[in-house]
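pasting G/U mismatch-specific uracil-DNA glycosylase for the record, 171 residues
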Amino acid sequence: MLEPMGDHLKGGLDIVFIGFNPSIRSGENGHHFANPNNRFWKILHESGLTPRKYQAIEDATIVDLGYGLTNIVARPTKAADEITKEEYQIGREELKKKLLHYRPKIACFVGKGVYQEFSGKRKMDWGVQEESVVPGIVEFVAPSSSGLVRMKVEEIVEIYRELTELKDRFT
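structre below
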């Protein structure tokens, strides 16, 4: 069994990106969004959030840009459906504690399913959520960057551009 994945967090970040959990590839090499089929780093760059396309091995440096990385569950799996209800329950509470402790301006949930597990809400639109689970932190729901997502990458990038604009209003 692979070790749980560590976070890249510090106080006062502009955005914390929150995924379901690490892939097996990420767990094996210790870097977030490391599966070559995952488009996370490409989406961040094309949406204007990063000045260039970062590589997964550079994930720890993203805090220098004002961004953090964490997951609702730290255990790597092949697919999100392998995560147990108990793991989600524990992860939900741990994530709330992290957000309260680090107080990022924006919590970006990388996938509706991640936000559903965190918030308990079933229906939501992309973008800023009307009511935050953690008061004082803007909660933003963005499409998953997984290669399994059927949306075109251009459509996903457009939604992440809204996140870029939102971040720019804070800075």
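The radius of gyration is 14 Å.
The chain has a mean pLDDT of 95.
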